[in-house]
Amino acid sequence: MRDQRRADGHGERDPGDARAGEPVPAPSPTGGDGGHGSLITVLFALGANLGVAAMKLAAGLITGSAAMLSEAAHSVGDCFTEVMLLTALRRSGRPADRRHPFGYGKERYFWGLFASVAIFASGAMFSIYEGVRTIVSGSDEQTAPWVAYVVILLAFGIESVSWTQATRQVRREAADQQRPFLSYLRSPDDPSAKTVFLEDSAALVGLVLAAAGVGAHQLTGSGVWDGVASVLIGALLVWVAFRLAATNKELLVGQQAHLGLVLRIHDWLTARKEVTRVVDLLTMLVGTDRVLLCARIDFADQLSVAELEHTCVRLNDGLRAEFPDLDEIFLEPVPSDDPSVLARVRARYGSRLTALRSQLPEADVPDQRP
């Protein structure tokens, strides 16, 4: 038994009535303010990085600083990243169709993975190469270091504005899901804001490293310090690229919804008088603010077939009202003592669910509304 009817009251459309690629009516896959807020954050970051990249490149060429050239490559890589994120935001907003009945929300994760590759290839590798080359060559030439200092200060101010916007966006998304900031940052359903936040955070740290490298070069007369700063900037970008790639990989493979949401759904279903037991609960993120839910439920034995059908409809509507992030809902009646179902549940979760519930921070599991 399953019910896929939308909260707007429109029944499910027969797939045979739609040609491949023809949109099927569905809610906006961006969900809430997530799409609009992420778009502003990415555009903000793109504009900042375009200006900062030009300034850093000019400073690097004038001063001969490997650290400044590395920072220029860093900002150019960030620009490519933002272009990919804009592509992700546009393509993931397409409605569901016959070929993709769950929509295109995961395109955001695909392009987010490419963005992490861009950070690694264009920023990290160039920075490490330039740093090693400077150290090995032993170049001590430095011209007009004050130019580098001025550019670093200007870039720090611009990047701080972009970082503030990204931080606000991440905090807003975390608040929408009633989760702590760091918890959401570790496991977001929208990698766009996290990408910009980590990019800008790395940019601010990179500017400090570049300033230290230029300053040490000026004080000691040795270009080795400039090269070391460049290598450190590259290592920082490698870490950022790895973290973003890991996040998008998990989302592409099929990550479950946040445990706090899963437990709240479980408790909500268990509290219904028609439900004897929630046997199994499967969730998967299919896009930003979009969760697929499959619940295997042991219903009260006295329910007739007609009553069971109407119960599933009521549960579907109630779940959508209580948990707006739910996109597709599948409700399957099963007996609670079915050995094959229980074996799959034990193989998947074992005793971890109870243990995780006890370990989860209280702020991560909001109180269920009456």
TrEMBL record:
GO molecular function list: monoatomic cation transmembrane transporter activity
UniProt subcellular location: Membrane
Residues in Cation efflux protein transmembrane domain copies: 43-252
Membrane-spanning intervals of the chain: 109-129, 144-163, 196-216, 228-246
Keywords recorded for this protein, A-Z: Membrane, Transmembrane, Transmembrane helix, Transport
Region (Disordered): 1-33
GO biological process entries: zinc ion transport
Pfam families recorded: Cation_efflux
InterPro entries tied to this protein: Cation_efflux, Cation_efflux_CTD_sf, Cation_efflux_TM, Cation_efflux_TMD_sf, SLC30A9
One GO cellular component, as annotated: membrane
Top-rank taxon: Bacteria
Primary location class: membrane
SUPFAM superfamilies given in the database record: Cation efflux protein cytoplasmic domain-like, Cation efflux protein transmembrane domain-like
Membrane topology: Multi-pass membrane protein
Comp. bias (Basic and acidic residues): 1-20
Record's protein name: Cation diffusion facilitator family transporter
